[in-house]
Every structure is written in structure tokens, then in C-alpha cells.
Amino acid sequence: MVSIKRIFRPSPAATDSSPEKLLGEPPEIATLRAMSTDRALWRVANRDLEIGTVIDIGASDGRWSNVCAKHYPDAHYLLIEAQDSHEEALKAYVSAHPKAHYVVAAAGDACGEIYFAKTVPHHPLAARNRINMNMPFYATGS
Q: What are the residue ranges spanned by the domains of the chain?
């Protein structure tokens, strides 16, 4: 039986997602990799599209941009994240990637504040009402 740790551990197929590499793996791992972000970006990159700027909305710690940069190393990256709990990781990411910049911000239909519950770190849902356990974030209106 294949453990979940084995499935997500980097392998040659993780850095080279070509169909030839996928054929040498067990079917369940090949399927997982074929559906991965890395594989999707490999397919896009093989269409010879020129991509000069990538905007990563909900960037978290920059993990997605890191995968994307394997396929578009010359692109400029703007990482946007609403939760300031990711700021240290974003600072580390942009210091290691000179073409990357980040901003801690949120977007909405009006200017104001948005709150994320501290009790559930990195939860995707924002609370509509401020409560004592929440921390404020500022939104820019369109």
C-alpha cells in the first residue's frame, strides 16, 4: 500500500511532468500527478504562451507561485494575500525571488474592513461582524 507521504514526496515526475515520466509510476500516483497544478502548468507552458506577469490571489505562503515559477521563471509575480499571518512567509518568498512582490490586501465591493476568525487559522470564510476574537483587515473597493 502506498502511503500519503509517499504520494506527496517530490519525485522525478514532480520536476518533470512529461507523459513519459508519468508512465513509469503506479497508476494512482500517475493520476494524482496528472491532475496536479504542476502538470496543468506544464500543459499551459507547452502551448508557448508568453506570460510576463503572474498574479497569485490568495497567495498564502507563495507555494503556488513557486510551482508556477518552474514553468515561467522569467515572469514577474505579484502575490496578494488578505491574511497577515502569511506575511513572514511572503517576505521570505520575495527575498528569494527578485521578480516577486507581495501585498497584504483584500478586495470587496466597498471600502471598509474585513475580519478573519483567529480561532480557525487560514479559514477561507470571513466573518461579517467584528467580534473580540477577530483581527481587522482593510479592503479596497472597486
A: 1-49, 51-104, 105-142
Q: What is each CA distance from 64 to 28, 42, 48, 55, 138, in whole angstroms?
A: 23, 13, 20, 11, 24
DSSP for the chain reads ---HHHHHS--HHHH---HHHHHTS-HHHHHHHHTSHHHHHHHHHTTT----EEEEET-TTSHHHHHHHHH-TTSEEEEEES-GGGHHHHHHHHHH-TTEEEEE-EEESSSEEEEEETTSTT-SPEESS--TTEEEEEEEE-
Provide the pLDDT for residue 47: 92
pLDDT at position 137: 46
- pTM for this predicted structure: 0.63
Rounded distance, CA 10 to CA 111, Å?
42
List per-block mean pLDDT (blocks of 10 residues) for the chain, which spans 142 residues. Answer: 40 48 70 79 89 94 93 96 91 96 87 68 50 42 38
Please give the pLDDT value at position 1.
44
Which residues make beta-bridge pairs with 81?
A: 104
